[in-house]
Structure formats: structure tokens, C-alpha cells
């Protein structure tokens, strides 16, 4: 993946940043290569909602001028990054996958976009989201097989990275909108600990669950994006002080002990693809004594709490749109919002109030295991004919619990990728990525990998 | 009030702590004086739910022994403090004003009780709360006129301090349960910034609104209790890092500029007692150019949001009690909980999500004024025949906004006290108390005070 043999557009985020820093590549050349790839491929894929060559190249030119001065540069200097079309970029369209927002151009960058710019990144364009980042499919195709969905809701961000149009891209996850598409298109996807990356300037569908996440070609890419985007933001109530998480260094280090894996099937296991279940059982076998199958109590309730919270908060945040222009929302979304207003307030508050206790109970597992190992999705990407973006059933519970989760592309089922999801304790994003890196390298050394 | 001429039970918290520190009084003598006053008066007042002479005196004896060693002692060393009967004291009854909790004896101190003990305080006993700290009146009488209510829900804590049974007492406020009783019984009451004092170990009726507060005989008392009880507690999601608020020092200092007052009538003004309104207008007049009447927009919505949040969260937290033993709750409470489950989830979430924006808009006033000046209650304490504890309409909005609020006993209407409420910006508790102290001293110097 993304070896140096190909075009510049095939560089990983980490490789691109290093090449620009070393002076072997200019931001302009790199951005041109990405734009050329987008021009060539995006009619077939539909990853981008808005692209403006001039806007992108102007940033690249400035980046090269700054690099030319010999002054210090940021860790993402000159690297093009794509941003989901629900995240504000100043003066650029942000249409949220919904005609109600047609022509919407925010005045200010979202905090996470400003953080990317501070790190030197080029915002290359906005990627397609499903309608209001929910379940109605977008027209984006899976680059690995265009008759399949790339998943949702961060469909365009996942597809753009998988199709080598851009080294890295930002998405969001409220149930499974980063991990699931990463799994379907065979790339790395990461949802950091809730509160590590600010959500200010991002379309809000659920203040409890919304989380910024991102896609790249390696664990290093995810770590680098984390270090660049993490930061306290007083305008996001979920934000917490995390002074210099320094995830790149931690993720690159060698684990002091061989990591151990708690293989958690979750109550969704029986709904999962039989061949994927088999592949997981093989993977657990390959890990041998380092992996135990663990049954965590209460996960069915956690899945239900996530569902209730999202349903009710969706109805609250999107209800005003529905009140104003019901006809501009899909039938599917109208049904969902109508259902959301009926969530009993007592059940909603119980779901909110149960989160910390549920996390505490589940986090005890990390006294015995490095990470939880579980599917990133119920199987490979569904066919477009099914008219769905796949189920977030393996993701929503960890999102609700605020735990960091990474999808690692190390499995294939029926010719399509399936991600392995690793979940760690809150605020320990660096160690989770270190374990993920260990797993990738360990399996690469094995004689036969599923 | 509480001059040194009377018995030891008449000492303020600050005076008592100083006397014990100086060795002029022992904790045992002080505790005995308080117990004697309780024995003499509490049949008529009904401030205490649980009192155990031996338990109290044992702590006093230990305190005197520690004082005798010459080692360092805490800022509340040997001072008796009473605690509302919804706050856990290890091994002591905590019955929440409700027969469902009859015989309940928690194993651990609430965090705020542990903080009091760390400061050296004696827990003298538990004070009467209204049923589950809500609106159904307790049997406690107002010590200033026993045919009137002391207010609620912290009825016993307010009455015990007002009747000189104990120098200070801890209560809680979800709408107006500290400020209103303080107003009715003519003492100082303080609800600090939400999150400054931990609520872990306190009966939960609303995770959004519940706040610990306390009563004393002076601003110094409130400042001292704040310094002793403030602290970060990871088990309370509202808790925030506040390293050494040092409120005592700040509250005792002279304001660098003469304070200015924003007199805010609120939409509840028209419901207030006419004579109190007149007294307030006089007070504003006395403050002259330092006081402007200000109309804050949107307060009616804030009042409604507080009401909705409390109603829905009450139904969620007390619903399980109702499910289990409806017949052990008052009719009034059953009606309230039945109403609470009907709050539309969208309205509830809107009320939750509006809080920060509402605070930001209101906090702009502090760019121009030191504090908000507003009534602590709609008038003097209602007569017992009315069967109510009075309305928290002047308090709930500030509780919802998480702002610190203090009630200062400087007015009288129809022979009963009425508190003046001062409200400050969040996390600026010390300056609020400093302004309150300035106001008290300023009015004491005036030729005629209302």
C-alpha cells in the first residue's frame, strides 16, 4: 500500500510530510498529483463533494514559499488532507449532504481544521457525507469494488484515501462512521478518545456521541494526525486538558511487554458474516496464548443505550430542520426523527447517566489485557443493491463509552477487506496505536495470514 | 447575631475555629453547648433528623487530643457542622426524608463530608430535609416565627444555624433549596459554582442541577466552608480542577474598585411580595450610581429550562423508587414524577444543550457589573398553614446556569427576614463573596437601612 514506487499521490501522510520536510518533494507537486488522481477517478468513485484546484494549489504554493524560507515548519507541512463535508472550512462550502444546506459557506474553520492548518496541512477539498451524517447512503462507491458501498457516513473520506486521491482525510463517528468505512475500503481508521479532538465547527447530531476521527495508510499516519488535531477547546464541553499526548512517539515505541488481546465477540456476533467469524477465530488462534475470548457482561444494554441516545439527540438537533423543511429530508430520515421524539425521557436520561458506570465496569478488562479485539464491521462491504451503508453495531457501543478505537486492514473475506477493530481505555490513544502497530507487524511476520 | 456575649453555641464558624485554634475554647465545650441548645430547642424547631450525643462528643474529644499534641490542625478543627439528611456520613443514618430509606446507613462519607473531616470538623448530626429534597414540606419550623416555614429543602440545616444550634451546616440546592431557606430564616447561605464541591455521596435528583451549598453567620463562614469543601473529584462528572480557590483570603480583601450592581428583577418580579419589591427599590436607591436596573433577555426561557430539566431528571432518578413503592411517596411527589416522565425528550435535550449558550450571553453582564443583585425569595417565609415551602423561582435559573449565588440577610419585611441574593460569574466565588461582604459593611455604615 502506498509504496514510493507509485505516484506522489500514493505517499502516506507520514511519508509525504517527511518528503516535504526533506525537500525531496514540493507541496505543489504533491497536491497536483492528488488533484490529477481526483480528476481521473472521482467521476467513478464520487468521493468529493467540493473540490477547487485553485484553492488547494494556492495553499500549496504558500506552503512551499514558507518551506523555502528555512524557517521552522509544522509536522503536516504541505500535506493535502481532505475533510468531510460536515466540518467547517472557512469560506468553503459545507453542505452536510442535505439540500437544506445548499450554498452554506461557514465563515470560520472548525477547531480541528484550524489545528490541521496550524500543523501546516493543505485542505484539499470536502468529501461526501451521507445525508446529515446518518444512514441514508451517498452515491460514493467503494474503490475496491465499485458495485459495493464504502460504508458511511464518512463515505468520501474513506474512499478518497483508499483510492489514493489524498494521503489522509478527516471524518466523524457517532455510531460507526469512521471504523466501518475504514473496514470496508481496507484502510486504517481511528476514532480517538471522546474529547481529545474538538468538535466545535462540526455538524452536531449528538453532543454525547459525536466524535472526530480520521483515515490514513498506516498507524503512523493516525498517530501523526492525532498529535496535530488533539487539543483542549473550551467551546466543546467534551474537551479535556491533554497536554501534548505525543502519540507519534508512543505509537512508534516497542511495547515493553508482548501485548495481550481480549477477543470480545459482543452480542452482535451472531449477526456477523460467517466467513468473517471464521477468519476472526483463526486470528485468535494465531495469537495463541496472547489472546483470550472474553465475555463482557452488559454489552447488550450498552448497545441499546447508544441507540437511544443517538435517536433522541438526533431528533433534538435535527428536529428544527424537519420542522422547517420536512420535504427536503429523505423518508428514511423523517421516520428516524419521528421515532426519536418518542424516546421516553426517563429512558434517555438513564442511558446518559449509565455511561460512566458502564465504562468503569468494562475498563477493568485493561487490568488484564492491553486491548479489546473485535470486528470493525459485521462483514465485508454490502452490495450497492442492498441500499444500505452497513451496520455500525460493532462500533456504536465503544463510541458511547468514549473509548478510542482503531480499524486495522488485515483481513479479507470474499475478496473484500474486513477490518480488525482494537479498542483501548480512554485517554490512552498512544498505547492503543502502539499495540495496533505491534499486531500488524506481528502478523506480517507470520507464514500465513488470513 | 452570634456575638461573643452569648453561649459558645452562638459563635460563628470562623470565631469557633479561631477560639479552638487559640486554645480559648475546647471542641468538647463547644460541642456540649451546641448539644445543649439542640436538647433545649429542637422539640419546638425540628431541625435535626438524627442526633447522637455520644457520636458527636467522641469526635470532639479526639479533636481536643489532637489539638493538645501541638501538631498542625485543619481550618475547621473541632468545629461542629450539621449535615443535611441526604448526604452520606459513614455509619450514620441517611434517610432522605422518605420512609423508603428508613434505616439506611451508608458505609462511606460523601466526598464533601470527608473534606469537612479533613479540615478537622465535627459532624454533629443530620438535619431534616423535605421529602427527597423536593417540595413536600418537612415538619421543621422557622426559628424566627414558628408558625412560618423555614423553606426547603434544606429546612433543618437552615433552621439549626438560625436557631444557634450549630455554627454552620451543609445543604443542597437543585432549584432554590439553600438560598431560599437562608432568606427565610435570616442567615447567610451560599451555593458555590457548580462543580466546585463534589456531589458524590449525595442523594441524586438531577445530575445537571444538584449542587452542594451551606449556611453560616457571616460571609467569612461561607468562605471558610468553601475553602474546606472545594476540590476536584473524579467521581463527580461536574467536578473541575480548581487548585486552591483560596476564597477566605479573597473574600476578606478590599475590592480594588467600588463594586457595581446589576439589579435584575427577572420575569418572577411581578409574583414577588409588594413590600419586598419596595424594599429592593429602596436598596437600589441607596446604592445610587453603583446600581443599575438591568433587563436580561431570555430569562423566562432559562426559568423554563431549569424547570424541565429538574422535572425530567427527577422522574429518571426517583422513578425507580416510585416503581418500587409508590405508596411510600407523597401524593404531591407522585404527581410530580408522573409529570416528569411526560417531558418530551426533544425539549429536555434542548434545555440541556442551551445551558452553555445561555450562560455565555448572561455572563456578558460581568464586563460591566461586579454582581447581579436580585431577591433570594419572592418574599418572607410563608405561613405554615399554606402548606408550602415557598417558591424557588428566584433561584432555579442561577442554579441551572451553574453560577455562584449568596443570600445576605439585610432586609426585613413584615417582621420577617428577606435575603438579598448576589449572583456572580462561574468560578469566581471568592470575588462574589468579597462583593457581598462589601455590601453588608457598606449598608451597616448607612444612617438608615431597610
TrEMBL record, chains A, B:
Protein species of origin: Candidatus Filomicrobium marinum
Pfam families, per the entry: Amidase
GO MF terms, alphabetically ordered: asparaginyl-tRNA synthase (glutamine-hydrolyzing) activity; glutaminyl-tRNA synthase (glutamine-hydrolyzing) activity; transferase activity
The name this protein goes by in its record: Aspartyl-tRNA(Asn) amidotransferase subunit A
Cross-referenced InterPro entries: Amidase, Amidase_dom, AS_sf
Record's keyword terms, sorted: Ligase, Transferase
Protein family according to the UniProt entry: Belongs to the amidase family.
Amidase domain residues: 30-433
EC number: 6.3.5.6, 6.3.5.7
Keyword hit for Ligase: yes
SUPFAM superfamilies: Amidase signature (AS) enzymes
Amino acid at each position: 500500500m502506498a509504496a514510493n514506487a507509485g505516484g506522489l499521490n500514493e505517499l502516506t501522510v507520514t511519508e509525504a510530510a517527511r518528503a516535504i520536510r526533506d525537500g525531496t518533494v514540493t507541496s505543489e507537486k504533491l497536491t497536483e498529483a492528488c488533484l490529477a488522481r481526483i480528476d481521473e477517478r472521482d467521476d467513478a468513485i464520487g468521493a468529493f463533494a467540493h473540490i477547487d484546484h485553485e484553492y488547494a494549489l494556492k495553499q500549496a504554493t504558500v506552503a512551499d514559499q514558507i518551506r523555502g524560507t528555512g524557517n521552522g515548519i509544522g509536522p503536516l507541512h504541505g500535506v493535502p488532507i481532505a475533510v468531510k463535508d460536515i466540518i467547517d472550512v472557512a469560506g468553503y462550502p459545507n453542505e452536510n449532504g442535505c439540500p437544506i444546506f445548499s450554498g452554506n459557506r461557514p465563515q470560520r474553520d472548525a477547531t480541528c481544521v484550524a489545528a490541521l492548518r496550524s500543523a501546516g496541512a493543505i485542505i484539499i477539498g470536502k468529501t461526501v457525507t451521507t445525508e446529515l451524517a446518518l444512514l441514508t447512503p451517498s452515491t460514493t462507491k467503494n474503490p475496491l469494488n465499485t458495485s459495493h458501498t464504502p460504508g458511511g457516513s464518512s463515505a468520501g473520506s474513506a474512499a478518497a484515501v483508499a483510492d489514493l486521491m489524498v494521503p489522509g482525510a478527516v471524518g466523524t463517528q457517532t455510531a460507526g462512521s469512521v471504523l466501518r468505512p475504514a473496514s470496508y475500503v481496507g484502510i486504517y481508521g481511528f476514532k480517538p478518545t471522546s474529547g481529545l479532538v474538538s468538535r466545535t465547527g462540526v455538524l452536531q447530531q449528538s453532543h454525547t456521541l459525536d466524535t472526530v476521527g480520521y483515515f490514513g495508510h498506516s498507524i503512523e499516519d493516525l498517530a501523526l494526525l492525532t498529535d496535530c488535531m488533539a487539543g483542549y477547546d473550551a467551546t466543546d464541553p467534551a474537551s479535556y486538558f491533554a497536554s501534548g499526548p505525543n502519540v507519534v512517539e508512543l505509537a512508534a515505541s516497542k511495547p515493553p511487554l508482548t501485548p495481550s488481546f481480549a477477543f470480545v465477540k459482543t452480542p452482535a456476533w451472531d449477526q456477523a458474516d460467517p466467513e468473517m467469524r471464521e477468519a476472526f477465530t483463526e486470528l485468535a488462534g494465531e495469537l495463541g496464548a496472547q489472546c483470550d475470548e472474553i465475555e463482557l457482561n452488559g454489552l447488550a444494554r450498552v448497545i441499546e443505550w447508544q441507540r437511544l441516545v443517538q435517536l433522541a439527540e438526533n431528533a433534538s438537533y435535527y428536529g428544527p430542520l424537519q420542522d422547517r423543511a420536512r420535504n427536503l429530508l429523505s423518508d428514511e430520515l423523517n421516520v428516524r426523527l419521528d421515532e426519536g421524539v418518542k424516546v421516553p425521557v426517563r429512558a434517555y436520561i438513564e442511558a446518559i447517566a449509565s455511561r460512566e458506570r458502564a465504562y468503569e465496569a468494562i475498563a477493568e478488562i485493561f487490568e488484564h489485557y492491553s486491548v479489546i479485539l473485535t470486528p470493525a464491521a459485521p462483514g465485508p462491504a454490502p452490495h450497492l443493491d442492498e441500499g444500505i451503508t452497513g451496520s455500525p453495531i460493532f462500533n456504536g457501543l465503544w463510541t458511547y463509552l468514549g473509548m478510542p478505537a482503531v480499524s486495522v486492514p488485515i483481513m479479507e473475506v470474499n475478496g473484500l477487506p474486513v477490518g480488525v477493530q482494537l479498542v483501548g481505555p480512554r485517554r490512552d490513544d498512544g498505547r492503543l496505536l502502539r499495540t495496533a502497530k505491534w499486531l500488524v507487524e506481528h502478523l506480517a511476520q507470520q507464514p500465513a495470514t488470513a
